[in-house]
Amino acid sequence: MIDYQQITTISPNLRRLLLSADPQWSHVTAALTAGIGWAGYQGSTLVSASILVPHSATSLELANLAVPTAQQRQGMGRAMIAFVLDWAAQQRYQRLTVATGTTSIGPLLVYQKCGFRVVKVEPNYFTRHYQHPIVENGIVLQDRLVLQQAIPSKTAGPII
Fold it and tell me: How far is Cα 51 from Cα 61, in angstroms, rounded to an integer?
């Protein structure tokens, strides 16, 4: 069972985890300021974190999703995405967007398995928006993929 808690303070462990998904702290803090952060715990162990940033009354971005290395490939990322989709549906959002690098093969697979579809490629995004080169899988990250999915609406069940 994962307990999801809204992020109100940043512990060193949580900071490291968020930076593992976005190495530029100014981007992380800007997203936290503009949106809402969630941390997933199993007992006292941090197993996932995310940041959601609203773009409109109906559109939301998953600006950060991170899972510690020790918990990867155990469904923690998919569980956080399921939690985020449920929370977003309760808030009446209609579309969730996420962006990732073209060299981020693991996250790209997770997003697609969770129902996201690529809608746009942004050439040279990472070389324009990051102070230092990011290297993943032995490749300098340049382009960003934007993925989206519709958020299933939460409808009230029949009144009995």
Answer: 8
